[in-house]
C-alpha cells in the first residue's frame, strides 16, 4: 500500500508510423493511470474507455481520420519525387507523470528506425538531437520543429498543463465533475500527437542528408 501511494500517476501515448515505398501505416495506443484508454489502428482511432459521448467522439474520430489520410497522401507525393526503397519507422512517446507531492514531469521522445532521434526539453521548449554523430537528417528535423509555435510553445503548454490536468482530475474526487474535466483533454492529447507527426514528412524528404 505504501508503494502504491508513492507511485506517480501517469498518462502515456505511443504512436508509430511506418513508411515503405510511399505507403504509410499507423498504429498506437494511450493509457491513463495504467488503463488502456485509446487505440489507433490504420486510419481509425477508438476509445476503449467511454470518456466522451458518442456524438462528440464521432467528430474526434473523423478529425483523426482526415489528418492521417492527408499525411498519407503527402508521403505518397514526396515518395514519387524521392523514392526510398527501405522501411522508415518513426515512434513518438510522450506524456506526463504527477507525483504525490504535486510536482510533475513531462516528456516527448522520438525514435527513427529504432534509434533515439529527437527529444523535447519541456522546461525550455526546445528540441534536442539524439541521433548519433549529429546526422544532417536530425539537424534538419530539429530546425523545422523549432520554427513553429505549434511544435515549441504550444507543445510545452500541452505537456506541462493539459497533460498534467488529466492526472490532477484523476487524483481529484471521482464523479461527474472529474469525468468532465479530463475527457476532452485525453482526446486533445491524441489529436496533438497526431498533428506533430507532420514533421515526419520532413524526415522522409531529407533522408540521407540530402536536405
Strand order of the largest sheet: 4-3-2-1-5-6-7-8
Q: The biggest beta sheet, please?
A: 8 strands, antiparallel
Mean pLDDT: 75
SSE run: HEEEEHEEEEHHHH
Spans of at least 5 consecutive residues with low confidence: 173-183, 205-211
Architecture (CATH level 2) name: 2-Layer Sandwich
The total of beta strands comes to 8
**Tally of separate domains:** 1
Q: Based on CA inertia axes, which overall geometry fits?
A: globular
CATH fold naming: Murine Class I Major Histocompatibility Complex, H2-DB, Chain A, domain 1
Count every helix, treating DSSP H or I runs of 4 or more residues as helices. Answer: 6
Radius of gyration: 18 Å
**Class inferred from helices and paired strands:** alpha+beta
Determine and state the CATH class: Alpha Beta
The CATH superfamily turns out to be: MHC class I-like antigen recognition-like
State the share of residues found in helices, binned by percent.
Answer: 40-55%
End-to-end C-alpha gap = 54 Å
Question: Could you tell me the strand content as a percent range?
Answer: 25-35%
